[in-house]
Amino acid sequence: MSESGSSSNVKQGMQKQKQNPFEFSHDKILDDVYRTHFHCLEKCDTASLHSAASDVINLSMEISEKVIAKSEKLSDQFREDTTITFQQLAAKLKRIAYLMICTPRGEHPVHCTTMLILEQLKHYSWDAKVLIVQAAFALEYGKFLYLLPLIAPCQQFESSFADLHGLLMVPQNKKNLTHFNGVVKKVMEVVECITVWKKLISAGHDIRDVPTLAESLQEIPIVVYWTIFTFITCTGEIDDFTRNKDQSHDLWTQLENKLESILGKFKNLLERCSNEIERIEDFTRRKNIVSRGRDIVKVLKALIISEDNRDLRQNVYYIDHSEKQVKLEEFKKKYVLLFISGLENIKEEIQLLNSINEKLKEKPREVEGYRSEDFKILWIPIVDEWNEERKKKLESNLRETKFGWYVVKYLNFETSLKLIREELRYEGKHVFPLINPQGKVENIDTKQILSRWGIDGFPFRTSDQNQLSQQWEWFWAEMTKFNPAIQNWIEEEDCYLFIYGGTDIKWIQDFTTATEALKKEVEKMSLETNITIESYQLGKKDTKVVIPRFWIAIDSLLTSRKQVKGGERGKDFTTNEIKKMLFLKQDPKGWAILSRGKNVSLLGHGEAMCRTVKEFDTWREKLRGVSFDVAFKEHYKGIMQKDGSKKCEENVICYGFPTDIVERIPCPKKDCRRPMEVTSVNYKCCRQHQQ
């Protein structure tokens, strides 16, 4: 649209029924202003423009205030040069300044000029529109910078020049000048806010992360409209200072109130934007610390310590028989097993961790450099809001359960919660990440390895889980050949399976009867325990075929593994477990194996296993704190410790390779003396000959 056409439209608009923009609705102004805004094709140096215009306006206000105060001496700073040039904008600034000067007094004409200027600046960004109008206003208001000093006693020429501009009347309009300066200061505050907004919107943040930026985009047209409206009004009023004419005090009051309202709302938006951006930057910094991992203490600080809280003991407690607030440095050079959960349905998880914690402290153990005393458990309970009810529930849990581990109380730091959800994959379901002393996540969720293998899964790495999952594959591969139903049983995590056999018929009958009774007792407890018991007697239907085939397969497996491993005895888990099974074979009563799913929990001797099953009533209460297999093993070991000193074992292992023999023995016949061929080795404890 040409400028002449635009002027014609303005005249037509002014001929219509005059409307007061102070009475316009928010939506009407928003709609009208948006119609004038197109893509930002025009570019200008907004920073330099803002600097130059602000300097002119601010210095002019200082001069006018000195006139009001009857100060005759002006600061030297008003004599400084401001030589910034804007060749491309010069003509536009003059045209806009002319429009502003020629606008008749009154709200409606000022509104029309505002819309006309917005139309002329339609290809400029929101901040550029305001800064160009600010500069145009500075062209007129800047006359005070150079002309007001001339009214002081000076040369005749300068005094006459000031008189021609009507400036001698300015000191007589101090009241109007005071109101005028108040509005100019207020609108300059708005301009500053717009420049701050521009920096925020140009920083490249995703609106989804900074939602208030989207809200500010809806508000900025209104702010721009009233800023330009105010500059046009002020430009038109400058001329009245040169005449002894009273200005409307109501107009200044209206403008100040409108600007105050806009400024308050816009500042609030900017503050919220800044806070959201600070949270993003803080989150990014913390995320880098957690993802890179340098030190466990730094990682924990990034996870749970608020930026505002300088006390590193923030709600971290050691829970035992009492509560003790601790510093995060207590975790230095430690492996930290995190338990991240809500407050509901965590009884089993707490029992599991209590069991693990007791086992870690009970007996020092070391696996590939991992020492049990270097492991600590830290619980981070997470809820939507820590109201009084939830605080009481947490405190109740802490009183009832003497953990012997650490807890973070009342974590409500939004950045921490977001970081835990993203980096540690917490989505409302309990997770058990393991973090090493360097702050690296070694296992993102140890829940499976803890629940399936318990302390046997130490040190709970992902590699340990993979190894444990595979180490009994050889056994199940053999067992499913004899009974395919076993495959279904071991796929269920909470299914406990007894596999047993032996040559003592009475023991077989007793153990079968005991396991059937145990099944019924567990079924009664199903609502509490959610576990099932299954059993399988090896060779029940075809003893003469199945049992020999099974033990031949196990013996052959041992031979093949020794060939692969080169005779490195004691270093391979599977080889050791095969040997244990061959040892059990020699038990005169019988043998039994207990598994939880695919995890073989216990290889047990017949008599002790049968007693443990029969004595279920004496250890069933332990199921409130630990899993079935853990409670079973503890009772079984107690029986073995009481009875184990009275009886030693005699075990026979067949070897298929000469490297398996520690020492060659020559034939005792004198005329032979050749090395004897060894087909089996009989191990018998010498102590039983002394009893």
Describe this structure in words.
With 691 residues, the protein is α+β, with helices and mostly antiparallel strands. It is built from 26 helices and 15 strands. The protein is 54% helix and 10% strand. The strands form 4 sheets. A 7-stranded mixed β-sheet has the order 2-1-7-6-3-8-9, with helices on one face. It has a 4-stranded mixed β-sheet with strand order 11-10-12-13, with helices on both faces. A two-stranded antiparallel ribbon has the order 4-5. A hairpin with a 5-residue loop joins strand 8 and strand 9. Helix 4 crosses helix 10, helix 9 runs antiparallel to helix 10 and helix 22 packs antiparallel against helix 23. Pfam families: SEO_C, SEO_N. This is Protein SIEVE ELEMENT OCCLUSION B-like.
Topology overview:
Blueprint: H1 3-15, H2 26-35, H3 46-68, H4 87-102, H5 107-120, H6 126-141, H7 143-147, H8 156-164, H9 174-201, H10 211-238, H11 249-292, H12 296-304, E1 316-319, E2 323-325, E3 335-341, H13 347-362, E4 366-367, E5 370-371, E6 375-381, H14 388-400, E7 405-408, H15 414-423, E8 434-435, E9 441-443, H16 447-453, H17 462-470, H18 473-482, H19 485-491, E10 495-501, H20 505-524, H21 526-529, E11 532-537, H22 543-565, H23 573-584, E12 591-596, E13 599-605, H24 606-614, H25 616-619, H26 628-643, E14 650-653, E15 681-684
Parallel strand pairs: 3-6, 6-7, 10-11
Antiparallel strand pairs: 1-2, 1-7, 3-8, 4-5, 8-9, 10-12, 12-13, 14-15
